[in-house]
TrEMBL record:
Name of the molecule in the record: Glycosyltransferase involved in cell wall biosynthesis
Membrane-traversing stretches: 85-105
Pfam family, one: Glyco_trans_4_4
Alphabetized UniProt keyword annotations: Membrane, Transmembrane, Transmembrane helix
Transmembrane helix listed as a keyword: yes
Domain (Glycosyltransferase subfamily 4-like N-terminal): residue spans on this chain: 59-204
Organism whose genome encodes this protein: Lysobacter niastensis
Highest taxon listed in the record's lineage: Bacteria
InterPro entries attached to this UniProt entry: Glyco_trans_4-like_N
Length: 407
């Protein structure tokens, strides 16, 4: 995989490494959208790991290449390997170290920005080899996420190794980016960081509010409850299905619109198990560019997370996107700073539990919010205050500026 030409280099250049591919919706919203703005003031080199299926979509790839070229971003894509897991990831790390080493030396790069844990392994190695500055964009408590998601046992070797690396990252980083104030406070309590914690900046997963804004179209008749994104692992989709079943009692004209890429069979199965009639459900797979138009048809959004320790470090992208579109949301507590935003700004409901009475009370409050005059404007204001892409870019820019050597 290769897209770019060799250039002379710039001592203010940043090497940004993402193990998420930028051909994926997440990569476009949470990597490329930021870098397009950051590249205005400095040279950006992006090393990403792309999944073969995404790379095979030539039309989508050409669109991303055109965006990179227009922004002046130098893209160095490599193939993502999945199996066998440990060997595949080790191979990708080795590739990342080799490519990163060449870029740092040939382009005179002084700062390496590692998005999450696997790129941080590359950054830790390259910092020791070259002295490059290391920004650890933590994203969340990844090792604990693996345990909380049932993927690793807490007493297992993989968890211990990952936590060992996490400690090395935090002790070696020149700057740390956290998604939530809750996780930043938690890091401050880690015993090994007492008196040694690096500078920490909180930057939630921001939304491009120029794209995610109230739609000009007319919504469908009735009440449309919207669900956007994944439905497995971290999400309590059965609770969503049960909640929508109760909504049909309160609003017989309600419909559920689901925007999801790959889990349609599972979603239909869980909705059927909850007794939700298939004719009131609309499931769609759309490109990331089409999501705002889908949201424009929704009156409210819903998503529930499994409560766990690692969720305190989670900042759901969809929250900023829903609010940017003027849509109040129903979710649950124990997820980063989300409850403070929903309840504190009066733009949604954060549930304490998922029993029938709690769901019904939450739905009644949500319906009241939807009917409140000026609710769309209130949601947009909250989105700008908490999830503005411009604010996120400004904070990232300040971090990169601080990494530059004194003149």
């Amino acid at each position: 995989m290769s897209t770019g030409e060799v250039i002379a280099g710039d001592s203010r250049a940043v090497l940004y490494v993402s193990y998420d591919g930028v051909l994926e919706p997440l990569g476009q919203s949470q990597v490329l959208a930021y870098l397009e703005h950051l590249s205005v003031r400095r040279e950006i080199h992006l090393l990403s790991f792309e999944k073969p299926g995404d790379w095979a979509d030539r039309l989508a790839r050409d669109e991303v290449v055109a965006r990179m070229k227009a922004a002046g971003i130098h893209w160095h894509p490599r193939r993502y390997h999945k199996r066998p897991t440990a060997l595949a990831t080790s191979y990708d790390i080795a590739v990342g170290v080799l490519v990163g080493f060449w870029l740092i030396l040939s382009r005179r790069i002084r700062t390496m920005h590692a998005r999450s844990y696997v790129p941080a392994v590359m950054a830790l190695t390259l910092k020791r080899l070259t002295g490059v500055k290391f920004v650890f964009d933590m994203r969340g408590f990844w090792a604990d996420e693996r345990v909380d998601g049932g993927l690793w046992p807490r007493e297992g070797r993989m968890y211990r190794v990952a936590k060992w690396f996490e400690r090395r990252f935090l002790l070696s980083a020149d700057h740390v980016v956290a998604l939530t104030h809750a996780s930043a406070r938690e890091m401050g309590s880690f015993p090994y960081l007492t008196g040694r914690i690096p500078p920490v900046t909180v930057i939630p997963t921001c939304a491009d509010l120029a794209r995610f804004r109230p739609g000009a179209g007319v919504r469908d008749d009735g009440f449309v409850l919207g669900y956007v994104g994944s439905a497995g692992t971290w999400y309590l989709f059965d609770a969503v299905a049960a909640c929508f079943k109760q909504l049909l009692v309160l609003r017989p004209d309600a419909r559920l619109r689901v925007v999801n890429r790959h889990e349609h069979g599972y979603i239909r199965e869980r909705l059927a198990a909850a007794g939700v009639p298939h004719q009131v459900v609309d499931i769609r797979a759309v490109s990331h560019a089409e999501v705002p138009a889908e949201m424009a048809q929704m009156h409210a959004g819903i998503f529930f997370y499994k409560p766990s320790y690692s969720r305190m470090a989670c900042a759901p992208t969809k929250l900023g996107e829903f609010l940017g579109c003027g849509i109040p949301c129903l979710s649950n507590r124990g997820v980063g700073d989300m409850a403070e935003v929903l309840e504190g700004e009066g733009v949604g409901v954060a549930l304490d539990g998922f029993d029938e009475s709690e769901l019904q009370a939450g739905l009644n409050r949500l319906l009241a919010l939807v009917a409140t005059e000026g609710m769309a404007e209130r949601c947009v204001t909250a989105a700008k205050r908490h999830f503005s892409l411009e604010q996120g870019v400004a904070r990232y820019r300040a971090i990169h500026d601080a990494m530059e050597p004194a003149s």
